[in-house]
Amino acid sequence: MGAGTEPDGSSRSDEEWERFLRESVAGAADAPKEPSARARDVAKRLRAEPDPPEGWRSYTPARPKRRTGWYVAGVLALLVLLVVALAPGRVVDLFAGDDPASPPPTAETPAGAAQRPTVDEPFRGSPAASWASGAAGITVPKAGAVGWMSAAEVERALTRSRDFLVASGLERGVLRGERPEKAISLINPHQKDVQDLLKTAFRTPSEKSDPLLLFSRFQPSRTHLVGDVIKTRGRLTYREGERGALQVTADVTFVYPVTRADAGGGDDEIVRTIVRRELVLSWDDPDKVITEPGTFSIVSYKYDMTNGGCGAPSGYFTPPFGPDRRADGTGTEVDPYDRTTPVGQGESSGDECRTATRS
């Protein structure tokens, strides 16, 4: 039996012998036990070159992991998030369909309904709910001597200044349209311009002679106040004015909850008319100015109002209800609870159409 020849007479190829000889060098169990002379020559050559050089085309770099699927999914997810951020309403509409049972987009939410005012809670949902009621919401500073007045006299003047605010903006009869006699009695009867205004304002209201410049009034045949509470927030300040007078400035916001006069149920619409007044009063030295004891002169008066009606002056606030309220909501938007800005409406301004951003 020659080298490279099997017991059955078949011959082995050179490649097979080289494989067997390699395994024999490594101690393989099935290597030929008595290799031929040829095999020994090949083995000797292989031992001389134990690590054959790698073929120039035998290196195959590692294939990168396939990330195409994850990459595409990530891009799609990013696009979806971008669409949701830019047009959330469109996404909701896409999934909501045209279910006729679904409420329209403008339908009141449960949270909105929970904040709606009621007869028992007319200030619910309003910043005024936490305000003080009536005169308690008008802060009076500590008195000190000013000009011709001692500290005690200044204290009395401040008290009477607040009495005027109560009589002109909180007294129930005045709010129901009665003539504000008590408030008028505190105004210097010798102040001609104000007395002329008072003579004409209640009979023939106009833009420059309107009782609303000084007093809060609602027409009882049209509007009823809800409950017995008026919410207020404001303060008095003072300094020395002209000719040694005590000058008092009042800046107070009044919130009036009202409903229709013909309303009769617990679910009636309630509107809050919000009025912010700024009055400057002068307690003059009677030796220098003609006045009466216990009265003041009015230096200036301004007020801002929302939910009080638009149109020609009638001498009353005319809160809008229902369709009228939506029609009135076309004026300049203002926050009636923002007390950081100056009072904008004065006696020469006829712009009463303001839309409250909150009430």
What does this structure look like?
The protein has 359 residues and is α+β, with helices and mostly antiparallel strands. The protein has three domains: 15-48, no CATH class; 65-99; 121-356, no CATH class. It is 28% helix and 17% strand. The protein is built from ten helices and nine strands. The protein has helices spanning 14-25, 37-48, 68-86, 88-96, 110-114, 151-169, 172-175, 181-184, 192-201, 323-328, and strands at 132-133, 138-139, 223-225, 231-240, 246-260, 271-283, 297-306, 332-334, 354-356. Strands 1, 2, 3, 4, 5, 6 and 7 form a seven-stranded mixed beta sheet that branches. Strand 4 (231-240) and strand 5 (246-260) form a beta hairpin. Helix 1 packs across helix 2 (37-48) and helix 3 (68-86) crosses helix 4. The relative contact order is 0.10. Residues 1-5, 53-67, 87-108 and 346-351 have low confidence and may be disordered.
In short:
The protein is of the alpha+beta class.
- What is the molecular shape? elongated
Q: For the CA atoms, what is the radius of gyration?
A: 47 Å
Helix percentage range? 25-40%
| Strand/helix succession | HHHHHEEHHHHEEEEEHEE
Give the beta-strand count.
9
Unreliable parts? 1-5, 53-67, 87-108, 346-351
Structural class by sheet pairing and helices: alpha+beta
CA-to-CA gap between the ends? 115 Å
For the largest beta-sheet, the strand count, sense and barrel status come to: 7 strands, mixed
Strand content: 15-25%
Mean pLDDT level: 79
Number of domains: 3
Per DSSP, the total helix count is 10
